[in-house]
Specification:
By secondary structure, this protein is mostly helical. It has ten helices and no strands. The mean pLDDT is 80.
Length: 207
């Protein structure tokens, strides 16, 4: 693989990473309720799932999943249901607006593991991630490409996702004082919840 080919791939993936999607919304949802650390744990869960999916595609398992329709449909519906669940959670928080009591309950439940799980499950149950890998990676590989080339491209996608999410967390941290305002937080929770519901519904209806 030439350097120019790799840089072209990385540039395209960096652009795609910055487009709003379920991963971004899950990180934002957890950053709003748990600050940069809360968003960081969600980011960690997403990253682990992303690296696992990238590895599966590089090993050829991704193609098996997408071709075996019952398994693909099961993953798709689980992912849609989970995104809808997260969206309803965010909308409930916006509707109630009682953030002090809500945050106390979340701290008592051990939020690190829960936030990590939210990030991991939202990504690992989204078959669009594997489809993205399968549709884009082959365009930058040749018959002479090695397994290491496939892993490099797959892990680049995951790494760029981490970079974008960390930048988002840094921004949230910089404006944390503004985000603590009840009206602002309710508005952002409403937007995030609606977006997650939209992503879940879109995943459910797509063939």
């Amino acid at each position: 693989m030439t350097l120019s080919t790799y840089l072209g791939f990385a540039g395209m993936m960096a652009f795609l990473a910055m487009m709003p999607g379920p991963d971004t919304m899950v990180v934002l949802k957890n950053a709003l309720t748990g600050g940069a650390r809360g968003g960081g744990w969600a980011c960690a869960g997403i990253s682990v799932a992303n690296f696992l999916q990238g590895t599966a595609v590089a090993l050829g398992l991704g193609a098996v999943i997408t071709r075996y329709q019952p398994l693909f449909e099961t993953v798709k519906w689980l992912g849609a249901a989970y995104l809808l669940f997260l969206g309803v959670q965010a909308l409930r928080g916006a509707w109630r607006g009682n953030y002090e009591a809500l945050d106390d309950v979340r701290r008592a439940r051990g939020t690190r593991g829960r936030r990590f799980r939210e990030g991991f499950l939202s990504n690992i149950t989204n078959p669009k991630v594997i489809v993205l890998y399968l549709s884009v990676l082959p365009q930058f590989l040749t018959p002479a490409s090695t397994f290491a080339d496939s892993l490099l491209l797959a892990y680049t996608v995951a790494a760029l996702g981490v970079v974008w999410q960390v930048l988002l967390l840094l921004f949230v941290h910089r404006v944390r004082g503004w985000l603590r305002r009840r009206r602002v937080r309710r508005t952002l929770d409403g937007i995030t919840g609606a977006a997650l519901l939209g992503f879940g519904a879109a995943l459910a209806v797509e063939g």
